[in-house]
Write a structure and sequence with these properties.
single chain, 16 helices, Anaerobic Ribonucleotide-triphosphate Reductase Large Chain, two-stranded antiparallel ribbon, alpha/beta, globular, 13 strands, about 450 residues
Length: about 450
């Protein structure tokens, strides 16, 4: 006779029902390298055929497994080969047409988001890269589910400052032409340093060049579970005890995620890829990374000590998660997107959390300056300076960093942007008004650091 652990059963139920634990995303990575053609119409036809072939049952199987295990699966997503590579051979490099095809396929398949309208330009641009990047504002404006990303630096190659300035201009334009939606286009666009090819989270997901034909990657999330575990401890428990509790909780979260991921991959008859064990918040109360800091003893996110608390949290989540799975990948850590975290929204609105403090926190977390609304009149050169700073943090520390900034059209400090859903809402934050133009407009590449020469 099987003996059930009543406490473990109750704990799992509480994680789901009381503390917002969920599988944040199942993301099917699909290689489109065999969809290349000189004719853009053939490319689009091949893309639709291949996505239908591999993803036609993704939503249904996810719903079935959610019902079987009573664990919410919030998002069903697809990540594809960087489209700059797929469209580069076309005589007519109509990347907007490809964008529309991807979006239509996602809608027909019932997918929430599709990522991979991307380019990797850390050492320079090809003709395809330039064409795709120039098409990003229009592509994001005319589509609903498409997400875009561009990698501008790596620890091995340095930072392409021409790409940094170009992407700042693209961010501005993407926000401006979606001004009727508070600049939503910019909310679906992320600029990376050290991007990874197995990330299941949007807006930066794409299927890396070294990935298999198809694989199922999964992103788990449970800030509310971690917060509840900390609150169960004695308030005087030392930080070593607190870190151990976080590790134990991350182990449970990751184990559950791997179980769901492997079941999904088995049903889809594709390889299981990785578990990304990031703590990804939502605007729902109780599902906040910022509220974890308060459970640790800080008055609010933004207080002195926030960066140290985040560093410990990030490290403990990774240590606990890595023991639960041999295939941890993606970004894996703690996200701090302002608009997507109820506690971060509150801290920013009250002035506890400044732009500079957020930048400091990105040194120790995943991924970077994320979902931050800034005044719409912020110059592109200032945004380029923000991207350069964040890329430098990633390059020097050999970690993934990113910038997802929304220069809110027609808005200034004190106003707010509202996107709804997982994207949430955010107060427009003040930025440093000193000019970065003379530096970012020099162009060229910032050389890779000396520790890149480690062969």
């Amino acid at each position: 006779m099987t003996i059930f652990d009543e406490n473990l059963i109750l704990e799992t139920i509480n994680m789901i029902k009381l503390h917002n634990f969920d599988i944040r995303t199942v993301t099917l990575a699909v290689s489109l390298r065999d969809c290349i053609s000189e004719d853009v119409n053939i490319v689009c036809d091949k893309i639709k055929f291949k996505l239908d072939k591999y993803a036609k049952n993704l939503v249904q199987y996810a719903d079935d497994i959610e019902n079987d295990y009573s664990i919410p699966i919030v998002n069903k997503r697809i990540a594809v080969t960087p489209i700059s590579l797929v469209g580069e051979s076309c005589r007519d490099k109509d990347y907007v047409k490809i964008a529309r095809t991807l979006d239509e396929s996602a809608r027909e398949l019932g997918i929430d988001f599709i990522g991979g309208f991307s380019a990797l330009v850390e050492k320079g641009f090809t003709k395809g890269d330039e064409a795709l990047i120039n098409s990003i504002p229009e592509a994001l404006a005319i589509t609903e589910r498409l997400c875009s990303s561009v990698n501008v630096g790596t620890s091995k190659a340095g930072i392409n400052m021409d790409a940094v300035l170009k992407m700042a201009e693209i961010i501005k334009k993407s926000a401006d032409i979606t001004s009727d939606k508070d600049g939503l286009g910019a909310a679906k666009l992320v600029v990376f340093c050290n991007s990874v090819g197995d990330n299941p989270f949007m807006a930066g997901a794409f299927c890396g060049y070294g990935e298999p034909e198809c694989a199922l990657n999964i992103g788990v999330s449970g800030p509310g579970v971690v917060r509840a575990a900390i609150l169960d401890l004695d308030k005087k428990a030392d930080l070593g005890v607190l870190a151990s509790k976080i590790k134990q909780t991350a182990y449970k979260i990751t184990s559950t995620g791997e179980l769901i991921g492997r079941k999904m991959a088995q049903r889809l008859n594709v390889p299981f890829g990785i578990v990304d064990l990031s703590l990804a918040p939502t605007p729902a109360m109780g599902d906040s990374v910022a509220q974890i800091f308060q459970a640790m003893g800080l008055e609010h996110a933004g207080a002195h000590g926030t960066t140290a608390a985040l560093a410990m949290l990030n490290d403990a989540v990774k240590k606990g998660g890595i023991m639960a799975s041999s295939y941890v990948g993606g970004l894996s850590g703690a996200f701090i997107p302002v608009s997507e975290d109820a506690g971060m929204i509150e801290a920013a609105a009250r002035g506890y959390l400044t732009f500079d403090k957020l930048e400091a926190m990105t040194c120790v977390c995943s991924v970077g300056l994320d979902m931050i609304a800034i005044p719409g009149d912020t110059p592109a050169s200032t945004i380029a300076g923000m991207i350069a700073d964040e890329a430098a943090i990633g390059m020097i520390n050999k970690k993934t960093t990113a910038v997802r900034i929304i220069p809110a059209p027609g808005k200034t400090v004190g106003d707010k942007v509202v996107f709804g859903g997982l994207l949430g809402e955010a107060p427009v934050m003040a930025v440093n008004r000193l000019s970065s133009a003379g530096f970012v407009e020099r162009g060229g590449r910032i050389p890779a650091p000396i520790h890149s020469l480690n062969n």
